[in-house]
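Worked example 2:
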Amino acid sequence: MSNPFDLTGKVAIVTGCDTGLGRGIALALAEAGCAISGANVVAPTETAEWLKSGGHRFLDIRADLATIEPIPEIIQRTVTEYGRIDILVNNAGIIRRADALEFSERDWDDVIAVNLKSVFFLSQAVARRFVAQGEGGRIVNVASMLSFQGGIRVPSYTASKSGVAGLTKLMANEWAKHGITVNAVAPGYMATNNTALLRADAVRSKEILDRIPTGRWGLPEDVGGPVVFLCSAAANYVTGHILAVDGGWLAR
């Protein structure tokens, strides 16, 4: 019996894979057999070195997803390099923190542009490619605990990640007829750049850890495996689902 998690020969676009969760996802997909096309606003030096040292194929594309302008180039360069696209992981995201009473329009627009607008339009462009190829495809979005909860001091981030959950379901509904599955992973509290301030706050960090049944912050590799699953034949009948990867946070 063949391995349903084997992604040999598949081509994956991963946005924001220069660090953190995106790097963990890119490594996991590569180890499962994917060629990786990484779209990043900065050079993903360590990611590229790790992938290439492991014998994996990696295409470095510089793209600032604060606008949708780079999307055609991401598609074109990936297809030119690899001949096709099979998987899209929308991981790139930013966060801005301030009290809701003081939150600025700029901080609202910046976060929504990257975390929601570009997610939709890159998914749309890749889905069109999937339809043209005629073999279906996989889209995995990176949602958040704030797709389920309100959070504090992050209004635009909460709105964007709630929007990602909704878009995941909408795209799954519309594109299933084309053989395209659309799912999301919702990471819990992860040890990444986005949570550096929280982890540095001893009181807040303890409050968070006390609620997580597994008793630790998540790691990028904790998210990589679930993404591989959602991109694999093992998840052929899974679409429109937001998979919490949270150490049990939502269960408590």
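The mean pLDDT is 97. The chain has one domain: 11-191+219-246.
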